[in-house]
Amino acid sequence: MCNFNEKEAAQEQASPGPAAPPRPVEEGKLMYLKLSEMHPFHTFRPHPFKVRDDAKMQETVASIKANGVMVPGLARPEKDGKGYEIVAGHRRCRGSELAGLLEMPFIVRDMSDHEAVQAKSVIFCGQFNTYQTINNPKYHLYCIVD
Questions:
Q1: CA-to-CA distance for 105 and 31, rounded, in angstroms?
Q2: Partner of 89 at 20 to 30 A CA spacing, among 4, 47, 80, 127?
Q3: Is residue 68 a contact partner of residue 78, using CB atoms and an 8 Å limit?
């Protein structure tokens, strides 16, 4: 399942080095990953957007039930080798879970922490969805990448 429990997500384990992911990574290729292997993006904890089970999520669930997941998420292998960290696609992952799916399409890339934060920031800056209002000042702050 897409584990969105903030307490659990905050518990990061220090690892001496990256372990092998649950499956071989085909760099930049579309892969269907089990939702049970997916973990929220914890590298960039202070981001302003949270996944909410609200009316907009129910619209996402209805769309996924009717059409499937039309845009893949972006993920990277967890450093401990136990699953994948979602870089982009948290709402689609949660929507897929609520729609009863067991897998979701992701593009998996090996990324450093800096590359993952950059990718997340670029995606934040490019999104103009109704659930992520452009009038939110935090939105503008997190679009700046060092």
A1: 6
A2: 80
A3: no
Beta bridge partners of 39: 85
* SS3 category, 14: coil
Strand partners, 32: 105
Tell me the sheet residues that pair with 77: 84
Name beta bridge partners: 74. Answer: 88, 107
Tokens 């009038």 — which residue?
135
Which pTM was predicted?
Answer: 0.68
Q: Which of 99, 24, 33, 100 is nearest to 62 (CA)?
A: 99
The predicted-structure confidence for 63-84, as pLDDT tens digits, reads as follows 999 999 999 999 999 888 889 9
CB 3 within 8 A of CB 9: yes
Residue with tokens 């059409």: 67
Residue 103: beta bridge partners? 34
Q: State pLDDT tens for residues 21-71.
A: 666 666 678 899 999 999 887 665 665 667 889 999 999 999 999 999 999
How many Å is the maximal CA-CA distance in the chain?
A: 44
Q: Which domains does the chain have, with CATH numbers?
A: 6-10+17-111 (3.90.1530.10)
